[in-house]
Amino acid sequence: EYTDKKNCAALNVVLSYNNIKMYVIRGNHDNPAYFDGTWEWSNLKLLKDYTTLEINGDNYFLVGGAVSIDRKPRLAQMLEYAKLGMIRDSYWYDEYFILNKSEAKKAKNIKYVITHTAPKFCWPDNTFGFGQLVNHFVAMGDSKLIGELTKERMEITKLYNILKLNNPIKAWYYGHFHTSKLTTRDNIDFHLLGISEYKEIR
Fold it and tell me: pTM score, two decimals?
């Protein structure tokens, strides 16, 4: 943790020098403990789930987390390191998206939503099954994976259904699936951002 905070502080220096503010939500390969609202510097903030930010007069609603499809090999690797007396965390049991209905209902005047994974009607649509990569990890012995992935997409769909009742959402941005796609529903654009893809919001 000391090293991680030192690295964040170093990144903050670079951001500050370039007059950039960075707000970060947790992905599926991030330690959730770092996203409790206390990890923040002048220009870098690791955000708690269900944070609302006002930026240039618009409200942003941010929630992180997702299930890792490669959690079995990550756990196996951690065990191998542990046998050598080393701690190399790369998976956390509480990494997944957590629906908090009471916090979602508090959100007002939200124009943009930022999450790591996405509602079930967004790409990829798994209505008729999951792809080769997911099935590969299931075959490796993760028999609960498909059920948990399905549940998570349903849970974040519930978040969407809560937010759309009281908020003029214009766009929703998410990552996690390592490609770039656009889905439109209820006049809301759902942008899936690929690896290292940036999207300017105007």
Answer: 0.95
